[in-house]
Amino acid sequence: MGTGREASLSLDGVRDKNMMQLKKLNTVLFPVRYNDKDVFFFFCFFSAYYSDICVGAIACRLETKGGTMRVYIMTLGVLAPYRGIRIGSKLLNHVLDMCTKQNVSEIYLHVQTNNDDAIKFYKKFGFDITDTIPDYYINIEPRDCYVLTKSFAQI
Questions:
Q1: How far apart are the first and last CA of the chain?
Q2: Bridge-partner residues for 133, per DSSP?
Q3: Is the CB of residue 118 less than 8 Å from the CB of residue 111?
Q4: Is 65 exposed, middle or buried (0-12, 13-18, 19+ CB in 10 A)?
Q5: What value does the mean pLDDT take over residues 37-55?
Q6: Which residues are catalytic?
Q7: Taking the CA atoms of the chain, what radius of gyration do you get in angstroms?
Q8: CB-based contacts of 12, cutoff 8 Å, min separation 6
Q9: Sorting pLDDT into bands at 50, 70 and 90, what band is 93?
């Protein structure tokens, strides 16, 4: 892989061309499965490519709550051999920039309570644990999750 090389970040919307790549990545990276109807609610979908190989992706959904817009991060993942070279950070920063430009009030996600690496990662970007939901997950242990939230100043 070469530690001195910069990872090339390619952005692409959800299309037939990359849908199978997203499904394969999610199968490898996450114990939770999304059904096909979920992809139609994407606010954004970006893939990270390293030497023309899809090695990471982020998928988010736009929601409204109390008349304000917020974004839910459905998935953010990078294949293990490509972690530590800021691909996940680039993906998340791009979405955070979009949220700021689109006047989104907050962005949030669910994280398994034992996923210390993910919690530490999101806290570096200003996310806070705002709730704990018992028995959120059905088929994985632990079943509990944290809700991590980052609020944006409204102009």
A1: 42
A2: 145
A3: yes
A4: exposed
A5: 66
A6: 72, 110
A7: 15
A8: 18, 45, 46, 47
A9: very high
Structure token digits, residue 97: 């920039």
- Evaluate whether 74 touches 61 at the Cβ level (below 8 Å): yes
Which residue do the tokens 């944006």 mark?
A: 152
Asked if residues 79 and 55 have their Cβ atoms less than 8 Å apart, the reply is yes
Among 22-31, 38-47, 58-67, 120-129, where is mean pLDDT lowest?
A: 38-47
Q: List all residues 6 or more positions away from 43 whose beta carbon is below 8 Å from its beta carbon.
A: 60, 61, 62, 71
Q: What is the dihedral of CA 14, 18, 19, 24, to 10 degrees?
A: -140
- Please, where are the H alpha helices in 9-52? 16-29
In the chain, the DSSP E strands lie at 42-50, 53-65, 68-78, 106-112, 128-133, 145-151
Please, are residues 56 and 75 in contact by the beta-carbon 8 Å criterion? no
What is the model's pLDDT at position 2?
45
Q: Reduced to 3 states, what is the DSSP secondary structure of residue 95? A: helix
